[in-house]
Write a structure and sequence with these properties.
about 140 residues; 6 helices; mainly alpha
Length: about 140
């Protein structure tokens, strides 16, 4: 099953679950990243600030989607879609942190799972299409 179909068909118990579940995964990701950095003796204030900024941005997206859902009557619950996507991103990050902590002891199935989820979550094909379209129009303008 593709990630896009999972995110589109996601159903939470309620709106509150769409808030606390990603928050718990964000906290777990932060903890596994920090512990892993400590184990590797690679702690960095700059990386922690950057990671904290990313986590804040994720939370801001969740709350923005919740505000839209509360303000508008729509068939789609944006907070569910945003939260599900962020939860999948955090899951991949937690798996990556665990893999780093396990070192050479990580099962090969974990590598395959991480690679597959990364490919699905961060598919750049849409960006490539948009980018090539804008380049084509610039080329046409230059030709005139």
């Amino acid at each position: 099953m593709e990630i896009s179909s999972i995110v589109q068909n996601v159903h939470f118990i309620n709106k509150w679950a769409a808030l606390w579940a990603p928050m718990l995964l964000i906290a777990l990701d932060f903890a596994t990243g920090y512990i892993g950095a400590c184990l590797r003796k690679e702690r960095s204030s700059a990386k922690m600030r950057e990671g904290g900024g990313h986590k804040f941005a994720e939370l801001a997206c969740i709350f923005a989607a919740l505000i839209v859902d509360c303000a508008l009557v729509l068939d789609v619950k944006f907070v569910y879609i945003v939260s599900a996507y962020i939860m999948l991103m955090e899951l991949v990050s937690i798996l990556e942190n665990a893999k780093k902590m396990l070192g050479g002891k990580a099962p090969s199935a974990m590598d395959h799972t991480i690679d597959h989820l990364n490919d699905e979550l961060y598919d750049d094909s849409v960006l490539d299409i948009e980018h090539s379209t804008s380049e084509d129009s610039e080329d046409e303008d230059d030709a005139e």
